[in-house]
Amino acid sequence: MTMPVPVTARVDPLARPPRHAGRERGATAVEFAVVVWLFMLLFLGIVQFALWWHAQHVVLGAAQDGARVAAAEDGTPTAGRARAVELLQAGLGQDARGVSVQARRDPQVAEVTVAARLQPVLPFGGGIRLAATGRSFAEHFRPAGSPP
Prior knowledge:
The chain is an alpha+beta fold. The chain has a domain of about 90 residues. It has two helices and three strands, in the order H-H-E-E-E. It has a three-stranded antiparallel β-sheet, with helices on one face. A hairpin with a 3-residue loop joins strand 1 and strand 2. The longest helix has about 45 residues.
């Protein structure tokens, strides 16, 4: 009984490549050029979202802290507005130039409203709107034993 001899295919080094091989030449470069734009847009979208997230929280914190300062017993709307502007300049840098800050205080509540625009990563459009309002109850000193 003889063992069958496995047949191995031989590749002729001088054989011609298939006809369609030349048509695919450069396809990788084209695919890369198409896909790289998608990744760049995704990356810029993530960066823009992170910048918006940060700026919105800076605006919210400035409005809340400005309202807290204005609501203090000796606080004024001017002091609350100044505190909000100070925090906006520290947190937003040059983007804090076009910010609108309004403060008011009545006998019960102090309120600070902040409105701003964030410049987008790509220079398209007028910017991304940021807005926040902070409210705080006005502080009043009551001596011990006085009615509420």
